[in-house]
Amino acid sequence: MTLDTIDRKILASLQKSGRMSNSDLSNRVNLSPSACHRRVQRLEADGYIRGYVALLDPRKIGVPTTVFVEITLQAQADEVLEAFEKAVARIPDVLECHLMAGTADYILKIVAENTEDYARIHRQHLTRLPGVAQMQSSFALRTVFKTTALPI
């Protein structure tokens, strides 16, 4: 399926406000409510829309500290990568894990209460990850820009 202009407007609008009513969405993209609803259902069924979430304020939740961790593994064998990926997916404080091309094999995005909490996460989880040869942690001082919206 290819996306037309209306599909793109629907996706862009829902990325900014996923709780928007179908009536408001249909007005925004100049479609009837029933036609708009059918398009949204099709975009969901075709996998363009994977789900809907609430974006929480990390400070209010008590995890204002963001840490990026570069990880280099001892080897690149499939079983080493697979074991690492399964283990890291079980750490609740890890928001993202990316397999990289470059100096690190993986980059993790972790949230914590503060540096002491990160030390706990490091001690209890990160040091126990299989196949790790080296780890480098960088603390974010301030988030300058952040979005979840993909360019449409």
Tell me briefly what this model is.
The chain is α+β, with helices and mostly antiparallel strands and 152 residues long. Helices cover 38% and strands 20% of the residues.
Radius of gyration: 20 Å
The CATH topology of the largest domain is given as Alpha-Beta Plaits
**Global outline:** elongated
Q: Name the beta content range.
A: 15-25%
Return residue spans where pLDDT drops below 50 for at least 5 consecutive residues. none
Query: Strands of the largest sheet, in order across it?
Result: 2-3-1-4
How many domains make up the coordinates? 2
Which CATH-level-2 architecture of the largest domain? 2-Layer Sandwich
- CATH class designation of the largest domain: Alpha Beta
Instruction: Look at the structure and name the CATH superfamily of the largest domain.
Output: Lrp/AsnC effector binding domain/regulation of amino acid metabolism (RAM) domain
H/E topology pattern = HHHHEHEEHE
Residues in helices, as a percent range: 25-40%
Number of strands: 4
Report the span from N to C terminus. 15 Å
* Count of helical regions: 6
Structural class call reads alpha+beta
Largest sheet: 4 strands, antiparallel
The averaged pLDDT comes out at 97
